[in-house]
Design a protein that fits this description.
This protein has about 270 residues and is α/β, with parallel strands linked by helices. It has nine helices and eight strands. The protein has two domains: about 1-35; about 50-270, Alpha/Beta hydrolase fold, catalytic domain (Rossmann fold, 3-Layer(aba) Sandwich), CATH 3.40.50.1820. α3 packs across α4. It is globular.
Amino acid sequence: MKIKRKNFFLEVVIGIFAVYASVLVLLFIFQRNLMYHPEENNYFGDRLEVDIEKVYINTSDNLNLLGWFHKKDLKKFKTIVYFHGNAGKLENRIHKLNHFKDMNVNFLILAWRGFSGNEGKPSEQGLYVDGSSAIAWLKNLGLNEEDIILYGESLGTGIATHLAQQNDYAGLVLETPFTSMVEAAKNFYPYIPVGFLLRDKYKNDKKIKNINIPVLVMHGEADQIVPFWMGKKIYEMANQPKYSYFTKYDDHMMEYDKNLVLALNDFFRSLN
């Protein structure tokens, strides 16, 4: 009887381990499907109120990426390079971009590989290439680093932070930034060894220390996806000059209300 119980217990343990191992294998294989959501569109129906030109940016690995370019005056005003988050098309950011029409800025928003009809599959290294290609495209128009403001939204903060290291861009905006993708993933998968499995780690906390340009960090305490403490930590780790726009009630997609727009506009004006 005791032997049967031991065998039963052993079979249960082996079964649990087998199921857990299978889950880890599936997570490893499909992790990028869980991280990148090009077809998830939560914001739609907004009318574009700012003039844009659709442009195509060639990457160093021969992809042509869709971008929207708004040009007021490249010599007179700074140009924002907007790196969007892990979900949806460019149209999902119209409600934000419309506010830029009343600011003295130009902007280029880039759709990542695999997003907005672009070819390719997203990955950390691939998105770094995409971001660098957008910068190169602007430099071909005669812009220098000091003419460019990097703006990262959520996942896009990983690319913006990476590119801002040891460079002399005019400024850096981080909207709902995470410390690292490993820590962000642990928030959703506390019983999974994400540090071991995760391919795309986006180590913002290691890179923010290497940035010596003005930084604005924006985050809401009610964020249910990237915990507020991560944005606060990124702000604390950032070098001076640094500024923050923290709110009590904003969730992950921050409300582009008059207070946020004012904070952005003040930051942009300080860079001229």
